[in-house]
Amino acid sequence: MSGELFSRRLPGIDFGPLLRQSREADARTVAAILARGRARDLTEFAALLSPAADERLEDLCRLSQAVTRRHFGKTIRMFAPLYLSNECVNICKYCGFSRHNAIPRITLPVERVVEETRLLAERGFRSLLLVAGEHPKYVSNGYVEEVVRRVLPFMPSVALELGPLETQEYLPLVRAGCEALVVYQETYHEPTYKDLHTAGPKKHYHWRMDTPERAYQAGFRRLGIGALFGLYDWEYEALALAAHSLHLTRTCWKAQITLSLPRMRPAAGEFQPRYVLPDRAMVRLLCALRLLLPHAGLVLSTREPPAFRDGLFTLGITHASAGSSTEPGGYTSFDPEAWKPTRAQEGEQFHIADERPPEVVAAAIRRLGYEPVWKDFDQSLVLSEN
Ligand code: SF4
C-alpha cells in the first residue's frame, strides 16, 4: 500500500466548490464532459450529479452503459448475503440490529450456516457475502474462519461484511480463503456519524474509514465501500464516496474496488430517513461513478424494488444480489418452491424491496440481453497470490 490513509486526506478536500458544482454546473460544462466520455476528477464528477446533467440523463446513461460493457461485458455477477448473526454491541440509530432494539438475537451454529449455504448453492449461487453484526464473541474464537472453510467447497467466492478488525485479525480470514471485505462508512459526514453512532466500537469514525486499507494489507483483493443514503445530504455522500474510491484505487491498486449505493429501508426501531436520494438522482450518481471509475464494481442489492432494479442493471451495475434474506437463518425458513419466507422475519436487519426468487431475477437480467454470472473466478487468483 502506498500513501496516507483516507481519514487523513478527507479533511483536506474542499467540499464547498464541489457541492456548488453538483448543484449549479451549467449545461456547457456537462456537455463537455459527456463529449469526452469521462469524468477526469471530482469536479467533473460533481457536474454529472447536477440538475444540468439531469437534462442529459439519456446521454449519460448511454455513455455509462457503453463504458461498463467495454470493461465488464454484458454480465452481472450474482451473489447472496448470508447473515451469520444479528448480535451487535453497537448502537446505530438506523439499524434493526442495533443493540437497543428488542429483536430475537441469534448467532448461527456452523452446521446451520452450512445448511443455509447449501440451499443457496442449490439455487445457483457460487458467490456468498457473509454478514454479521459486531460482536467479539464470534471473531475471537475462530468461528468465521471455520465457517469460511466449511462453505468454500461449494461456494468458491466468499466475501465478508463484519465489524472492522485489525490487519492481524484479518490475516487468518484471508488465509481461510476469503477474497473480499465490505465495509460501508454509512455516512462520511462526521457530525452526523457521531450523532447516529452513540455506543460501541463503531463510534470511531476514523477507525472505520481506514478499514479498507487494513484489509488490503492483510491480502483481501476486493474491497467494497459504500454510503447509506438517507443519513445525510446525498451530494455530500456521493462526493466523499467518489473521493474514497479514487483514493483506494491509487493506494490499494492490486485490489478491485466495489461501490454500493444502498438507500435506507424500513427496519426495527423508530428511525426515519432524514434525507432522500431520489430515483433520478440515483441514476445520475450511478452513471457519474462509472464515468469517473470505469473499472470499479458497482453493486445493487435487493433494497431497491424490482422495476427500478431492472432499469439499473444495464446502466453500470456489475454485481447484484437476489432472493435475499437479511435475517440469520432466514433461508432455512423459506418455502423451497416459491423462495419466500414462510414466517415473519422478526430478526431481520431491514426489509428488502425486491422479493423475487434468484432465478426470476436471473431471467429478467437475461431478457435485458445480459448474462447473470454465478461463479466468481477471482478465487483462483486469490489463492495463487496468498
Ligand atoms: S449497522 Fe452494523 S454495527 Fe450498526 S447496529 Fe447494525 S449490525 Fe450493528
Textual characterization of the structure:
- There is one protein chain.
- With 386 residues, the chain is an alpha/beta fold.
- Helix content is 41%, strand content 14%.
- It is built from 17 helices and 13 strands.
- Helix 13 links the parallel strand 7 and strand 8.
- Helix 6 (57-72) packs across helix 14 (279-292), helix 7 runs parallel beside helix 8 and helix 9 (167-176) packs across helix 12 (211-218).
- The protein starts with 5 loop residues before the first helix and ends with a helix.
- Iron/sulfur cluster binds at residues 88, 90, 92, 95, 97-98, 133-134, 202.
List keywords for this structure.
about 375 residues, alpha/beta, TIM Barrel, eight-stranded parallel β-barrel, two-stranded antiparallel sheet, 13 strands, about 15% strand, binds iron/sulfur cluster
Shape descriptor reads globular
Strand content: 5-15%
The largest β sheet comes out as: 8 strands, parallel, barrel
Helical fraction equals: 40-55%
Count of distinct structural domains: 1
Reading the helices and strands in chain order gives HHHHHHEEHEHEHEHEHHEHEHEHEEEHEH
Q: Layout of helices and strands, plus pairs?
A:
Layout: H1 6-9, H2 15-24, H3 27-36, H4 42-47, H5 51-54, H6 57-72, E1 75-85, E2 91-92, H7 110-122, E3 127-132, H8 143-151, E4 157-161, H9 167-176, E5 180-182, H10 190-196, E6 197-199, H11 205-209, H12 211-218, E7 222-226, H13 234-251, E8 256-260, H14 279-292, E9 297-300, H15 306-313, E10 319-321, E11 334-335, E12 340-341, H16 358-367, E13 371-373, H17 378-385
Parallel strand pairs: 1-3, 1-10, 1-13, 3-4, 4-5, 5-7, 7-8, 8-9, 9-10
Antiparallel strand pairs: 2-6, 11-12
Helix pairs in contact: 6-14, 7-8, 9-12
Bound molecules: iron/sulfur cluster.
